[in-house]
Amino acid sequence: MKDSDTDGLLGAHSRRTFLKSLGTVAATAATAQVQSVAAELEKINAEKIVGPGAVPVILNVNGKKLTLQLEPRVTLLDALRNYSSFTGAKEGCDRASCGACTVMMDDMPIYSCQKLAIEAQGHEITTVEGLADSGKLSPVQQAFFEKDALMCGYCTPGFVMSVTALLKKNPHPTADDVKHACAGNLCRCGTQPRVLAAALQAAGVAANGTTKTEVISHA
Amino acid sequence: MPSWPSNTKYIGAETQRIDAPQKLTGQARYSSDIQAPGWLYGMILRSNLPAAKIGGINLDKARQIPGIKAAIALGDGERTVHFYGEELAAVAGTTKQACLDALRAIEVDATPLPFVVNETDAKKDDSAQVWQGSPNFSQPSTREKGDVDSAFPKCAAVIEGFYTTPVQIHNPMETHGNTVSWTDDGLTCWASTQGIGGVRDSFAGALQLDQSKVRVITEYMGGGFGAKFNAGVEGILAARLSREAKAPVRLMLTRFDQALAVGNRPSSFQKIKMGALADGTLHAFEMDNYGTAGFAAGGATGGGGSGVELPMPYLYRVPNSRVTQTVVAVNAGSARAFRAPSNPPASYGMESAMDDLAVKLGVDPVEFRLKNDPSPIRQREYAIGVEKFGWKDKYQKPGTSPGIVKIGVGCAGAAWPAGGGSRGTQAEAKIFPDGSVELRLGVQDIGTGTRTVIAVVAAETLGLTPEQITVRVGDTNFPWGPGSGGSTTCPSVSPAVFDVCNNALQQLQTLSGMADVRGDNWSAACKKLGVTPLNVHGQWQPGLSESHACGVQFAEVAVDTETGLVTLKKVVAVHDCGLIIDKLTLESQINGGVIMGMGYALYEERVMDNLSGVVLNPNFETYKLPGIADVPDIDVVLINMPERGVIGIGEPATVPTAAAIGNAVANALGVRVSSLPITPAKVLAALGKVPPAVTT
Q: What is the DSSP string of B207-261?
């Protein structure tokens, strides 16, 4: 679950955050009613209305400026995958329940299927394509490689981004921290034990009680 | 007959997945990532009624939506739909949003018909009929051995149980779909498939094209688990849209679509009676089982069941048995092959009955299995598993674990009758004068590590390193290979690669005039080719692969008797698959089998609404998959049996997990939850703390 530090973002990164933010919105609305409905309305009306046709959208992806013409209802995921060539983030559900589309926005992991591209303007977006430095795998990618923390690989970019974001915030996580960070990422091939091992290896933390294997020869 | 080398450097060792860097950096292009020049989005309109007469479909308004380039209806004139989610029409347009708008603009003249979505209701005489005028169920098939009726009275202990398993949905992370470009020159399809050859042949058949005019490419795909073997309705629709729009069309299913229309594992309702003699020998087995494979099953379709009929009595020697099975049609999407078809439900029914009978006989469940399992391999695996798991210390009499959170343990065995090689598998090797090597096979890597297996076998045979081998798969222009099903890919490609590399060595010896061209001599020998690369063909050879893997698994659970929550603490999986090619990817497959089995045991179930006929959980919020925090410690023990040759592992690894977990829960509680998934509500009902759920 990526709910620990997301108060400033309206990305609805997880069900828990979503519910939390609903609570905040409701409370804010109630307070606003008491204080000054008119002032609130004035503020909302002052916001620029865009669309429904395509509008220019400028995104900062992996340190590069990307200028696109998008209908305001286009999601960040759609913009990355289908209006440019950043197909690293995957679409698994398009409704914030699988995590395959996870990218970082200003170092926070978000579900890019739940963020409108226009909302992502002015933020630094990092996709899985932006991690390797001139062909050299990042420490997290290298650990996934060594531990075989991927199979079909479709969910993998999402896991890599979740783990990368975790290690930025918490360079020495526990196994529970990793599980918490990756709770919003689903995998159907069953790579979870090795994702855990890879994340801990990337952090230089010794793994306790994770999957062990051995070969016995048939004599 | 050829044989595998005995002293190996790479075969049996750990080799990192050779395509992992591409997958980890986002460079790998999956079928859903393909951006063919001028491509359009495709989308499907589906029936929102579980059964209906379709009078007509009007696409006029959809065609007028800006950006829409093609719109087609499925079938001409009147037709009947048989399930919620059946395909009605499809559109192609320049944006996803235009397609969504167009789907909303399609007018469908539909008259609702009576329907039934529950297999128990569908068996009743007054049930609505899925196929008008035909019964919903097939003629029951009965297999008999010995004399069951006179055998039961001789038994010292007899148990009766009703064990049920749900419809399970494949849910690969990448949904089904294709990008299709159909022009006068032919058809090219980038498919998310497990079988590029099968996709090519199904396009050619359905669209009346020469097979030579159809090319299918699957460089990377996001999982299949048995549900992705043909072009499918969605593939044919994408082709027709491409033809009409004169542009490539990418049509990927939504997560909802995926749950409704492209396969599932059939349910089972197993009424089992089983008895053993006083010495613990199984003596009599009787089962009446029914299950649904969706709408295309039952009386009207000759009972095609896609895995409803179970191979019972599973695994064990039973001299007297009678097994009666019925395939039931309901108004729901069709079943398809699903990782070890028929085996996980058979394992759950049989192994549950085994533990229930062991309890009644007062014997240790492992001892009871050893007494009745004819497989010497599983006998050995149980002995290893008992030690690794610590069975003798952990096994307590059922229900004797103290406290509110009760600990229990269980075990179960696996079998997979397939897993051998496909005889027609071919391979091509290109040896370049600079010493570089390219292997080409018309198979696909569905996440199992097929590319890596090819590189390992080639490197071993040529005396090179896996990094020196370029592997190309996933294109029907390459030499033919089988679909990835039945755990057959590894035992298909390994012998073919071994053969082509041995042929390459021979030819290079002749051409270079060098006696030994392997390893250190490789580069010098290749230089002698001059400017002409060497093109070598090879094929699958007998004697290098086998079928019939075994395996046993042990599970430990903690069950909270106040909340009903089951926590899977530990799994020990002891498996064999002949000669181990790559230990690393093999272990990943076993982890995956265990975790998928865990989902089957505890979380997964397609839920249908009897009143509306819709699937209630076609998404990941309410169709639960195991998450990283649910997954237990898994210890994998592999028995390397090079003398058997290569055997596939994908399927046996998932067969026994749910049964072992079910037995562990029964051991913890002292009562059995005899229905998968073992939800908190069922646990509390089994303990008498809440009333049982009403199922019909």
A: HT--GGGEEEE-SB----TTS-SS-HHHHHHHHHHHHHHTS-EEEEPPHHHHHHH
C-alpha to C-alpha distance for B4 and B498, rounded to whole angstroms: 8
Q: What is the CATH number of the domain that holds B55?
A: 3.30.365.10
Question: May I ask the CATH architecture of the domain A49-128?
Answer: Roll (3.10)
Instruction: State the DSSP code for A138.
Output: P
Inform me whether the C-beta atom of residue A19 falls under 8 Å from chain B C-beta atoms.
no
Of B254, B255, B591, the CB nearest to A211: B591
Structure tokens at B73: 């209806």
Report how far residue B219's alpha carbon sits from residue B28's, in angstroms, rounded to the nearest whole number. Answer: 8
Q: Does B362 touch chain A (CB under 8 A)?
A: no
Chain A nearest-CA distance from B281, in A, is 28
pLDDT (tens digit per residue) in B400-440: 999 999 999 999 999 998 878 899 999 999 999 999 999 99
Q: pTM for the full model?
A: 0.94
Measured between beta carbons, the chain A residues lying within 8 angstroms of B591 are: 190-194, 211
> Do B624 and B479 share a domain, yes or no?
no
Q: Do the strands B214-217 and B186-191 form a parallel or antiparallel pair, or are they unpaired? A: parallel
Residue of A nearest to B592 (CA): A190
- Residue ranges per domain, chain A? 1-47, 49-128, 131-208
Give the residue from chain B lying closest to A100, CA to CA: B173
Query: In percent, how much of chain B has pLDDT > 90?
Result: 95
Output the CA torsion B235→B240→B245→B251 (10° steps): -20
> By three-state DSSP, how is residue B164 classified?
strand
Do B402 and B455 lie in one domain? The reply is no
Q: Which residue of B has its CA nearest to A14?
A: B621
ipTM for the whole complex? 0.97
B483-521 per-residue burial string, b: 16 or more CB within 10 A, e: under 16 = bbbbbbbbbbbbbbbbbbbbbbbebbbebbeeeebbeeb
Number of domains in chain B: 3
Cβ-nearest to B20 among A94, A100, A150: A150
Burial A111-128 (b: 16+ CB within 10 A, else e): bbbbbbbbbbeebebbbb
Q: Which CATH class is domain A131-208?
A: mainly alpha
On whether both B275 and B244 belong to a single domain, the answer is no
Residues 6+ apart with CB under 8 A from B628: A178, A179, A182, A183, A185, A187, A192, A195, A196
Please indicate if any CB of chain B lies within 8 Å of the CB of A15.
Answer: yes
Give me the domain span that covers residue B198: 36-113+176-252
**B252 Cβ under 8 Å from any chain A Cβ:** yes
Paired tokens of B266:
């059939």
